[in-house]
Amino acid sequence: MNTMQEQNLTPVVRTFRAIGWICLVFALTFAGCSGGTSKSPPKQNVQDTVRASLPQFLTLDSIELEPIPTGPEDVKVNFKATVTPKEDLYQIDREVEGTPKVTLLKVVQPAGIKASLYGSVAAHRTMDQWSIQPPQIDVGLRQFGMPRAAFDAQSYVTGSNDANEALRQQATNAEKIAQAKEAARAERERERKALEEQKAREEEARKKREEQTRVALEMQRQKEAEQRRLEKLQREREAAPAELAKIEKMIQAKERGLATCRRVAMEYRLSGLPYGQAEKDASAYEREIAELKARQLELMNLLSR
Q1: Model-level pTM?
Q2: Neighbours of 141 (CB within 10 A)
Q3: Could you give the C-alpha distances from 295 to 124, 299, 300, in angstroms and in order?
Q4: In the predicted model, what is the mean pLDDT of the chain?
Q5: What is the pLDDT of residue 272?
Q6: Is the peptide bond before 100 cis (omega within 30 degrees of 0)?
Q7: Helix axis angle, 43-53 relative to 11-30, nearest 10°?
Q8: How far apart are CA 82 and CA 68, in angstroms?
Q9: How large is the average pLDDT for residues 82-110?
Q10: What is the 3-state secondary structure (H, E, C) of the chain?
Q11: pLDDT surpasses 70 at 288
Q12: How far apart, in whole angstroms, are the C-alpha atoms of residue 88 and residue 292?
């Protein structure tokens, strides 16, 4: 979060800070040591260095120094600076995901309220001139927050009317997005059902065509079978008269044979001879005559249709 605040400094602020540093280093390098001592740089020079390092939204009110020698010509100057924000300074309170994303801010340093800043600067003396390095802040400037303008357009102060309106708009957008998603889901469902119904209709039509084909084939098969039956019947009718005449002759011959067998059996019985074979032959003739007469009746029925 603090890194983002530093990055959100406007290009103008960063440019002025860079120019300030360059001017300050040149001024302190070539300026005399008036007001300073042989063991530390002038307080005014240190104060100017610290002031140049501060962002434009902080005012340096006062500074207290503690020089600590670190070498024959070098010194580390610890300082306590009292600063005052020119405007309310903010940090991110929380981020609310949505469309658009809303960042809620909280005031961490009210305008006009003094605060302390601790750090140090390294200084090097060349002859009677001091060059001072940029200060090192022990507790970073990020603790002070950033001006309202440093945050993007979707950032609002927690609890403000603008923040509440942004959250309401976000909720409205979320509802619209949810409705659009639901409408899209319902449309996909309708398309799915329509596709299923289309497939069902196509399947039913396919089965109907198959059934019609089967019925047509079955009817064709039955028609052909009937045609073959009629053709056979016609052939039988055409052959029936000749077969009837043949059967009639065969019946007559069989009846003569039957009469002969009966007469022989009777004679053998009266003479006391075995007549069993004659009776068997007679029975065979009777069966054959019955079969011939049955066929004869069948043919006569055929001719009568």
Answers
A1: 0.52
A2: 20
A3: 146, 6, 9
A4: 86
A5: 83
A6: yes
A7: 160
A8: 21
A9: 93
A10: CHHHHHHCCCHHHHHHHHHHHHHHHHHHHHCCCCCCCCCCCCHHHHHHHHHHHCCCCEEEEEEEEEEEECCCCEEEEEEEEEEEECCCEEEEEEEECCCCCEEEEEEEECCCCCEEEEEEEEEEEECCEEEECCCEECCCHHHHCECHHHCCCCEEECCCHHHHHHHHHHHHHHHHHHHHHHHHHHHHHHHHHHHHHHHHHHHHHHHHHHHHHHHHHHHHHHHHHHHHHHHHHHHHHHHHHHHHHHHHHHHHHHHHHHHHHHHHHHHHHHHCCCCHHHHHHHHHHHHHHHHHHHHHHHHHHHHHC
A11: yes
A12: 132
pLDDT in tens, 29-86: 433 333 445 688 999 999 999 999 999 999 999 999 999 999 999 999 999 999 999 9
Residue 282, amino acid: A
Dump pLDDT digits (tens) for 177-230: 999 999 999 999 999 999 999 999 999 999 999 999 999 999 999 999 999 999
> Which residues, in sequence order, are bridge partners of residue 62?
82
Token pair, residue 130, equals 């001091």
Which residues have a Cβ under 8 Å from the Cβ of 294 and sit 6 or more positions away?
Answer: none
Q: How far apart are CA 119 and CA 214, in angstroms?
A: 99
Give dist(CA 235, CA 138) in Å, integer: 126
User: Which residues sit opposite 191 in a β-bridge?
Assistant: none
Confidence of residue 140 (pLDDT cuts 50, 70, 90): low
Packed helices 276-304 and 161-271: angle between N→C axes, nearest 10 degrees: 130
What is the signed CA dihedral for 272, 277, 282, 288, rounded to 10 degrees? 180
Q: Which two tokens stand for residue 49?
A: 């260095």
Placement of tokens 């299923």 in the chain: 196
* CA count, 13 A, side-chain hemisphere, 195: 6
